[in-house]
Design a protein that fits this description.
alpha/beta; three-stranded parallel beta sheet
């Protein structure tokens, strides 16, 4: 399985698409995430989160009811 480092914005965008906050089909920008999300769900790739990104997410996690933190726990590997 391949691993890819992601930044905070990518994690938040993926979480928003998976929770329905963003309709990926309605935006050309977000449409590119659909294949990535399929690979994540099918466990073909892992998202790697460095401590700096985790710290940024934790600092603002109260804004989204800790959904991004839960996403990291379920789908990512913290380095």
């Amino acid at each position: 399985m391949k691993g890819y480092f992601v930044d905070t914005n990518i994690l938040i965008d993926i979480k928003k698409i998976m929770t329905g906050e963003i309709n990926a089909k309605a935006s050309r920008y977000y449409r590119h995430y659909e294949d990535l999300i399929d690979l994540i769900i099918n466990e073909e790739i892992q998202l790697l989160v460095v401590p700096t990104v985790l710290k940024e997410v934790k600092r603002g996690s109260h804004k989204d009811d800790f959904m991004t933190e839960r996403f990291i726990e379920k789908f990512c590997v913290v380095c």
